[in-house]
Design a protein that fits this description.
With 126 residues, this protein is mainly α. It has three helices and no strands. Among the domains are: 2-61, no CATH class; 91-115. It has helices spanning 2-13, 33-61, 91-115. α1 (2-13) runs antiparallel to α2.
Length: 126
């Protein structure tokens, strides 16, 4: 990623190359070619690493090798012997708090957007 981003950032920030254009075929292409090569090499390395990652994931998923005995995972003991309140283990309080925070954050903006709703662009709202 360092190679690809360095090449593209250098072209854009230092040499003012426009973004989202085919710089390789542009008639005004007088940028140093080293940065194109650097970005291409970085992109190839990123592509290969992505393919290897997905090959590893698929190999792990479809591997037929099973564990002979299960791995014993240690469990931490609680510092406090008193359990948490039962209402913290339910969904309803957390959902209520989430909905309340969403309404507080987005409510005024939604009310203003709906009150100034203009379904037909260019035609003033009544």
């Amino acid at each position: 990623m360092i190679l690809m981003s360095n090449g593209l950032h250098t072209l854009g920030l230092i040499f003012q190359a426009p973004r989202r254009t085919m710089l390789g075929v542009a008639p005004y292409n007088d940028y140093p070619q080293f940065f194109f090569v650097e970005a291409a090499i970085g992109g190839i390395i990123l592509g290969i690493s992505g393919l290897l990652f997905y090959a590893n994931v698929l190999g792990t998923v479809f591997a037929s090798k099973k564990l002979e005995k299960p791995i014993e995972m240690p469990v931490a003991e609680p510092l406090d012997a008193h359990p948490a309140p039962a209402w913290l283990d339910q969904w309803r309080p957390w959902l209520a708090v989430t909905i309340a925070l969403i309404l507080i954050a987005y409510g005024p903006v939604l009310i203003q957007s709906i009150s100034n709703l203009n379904l037909v662009p260019g035609v003033p709202a009544r």
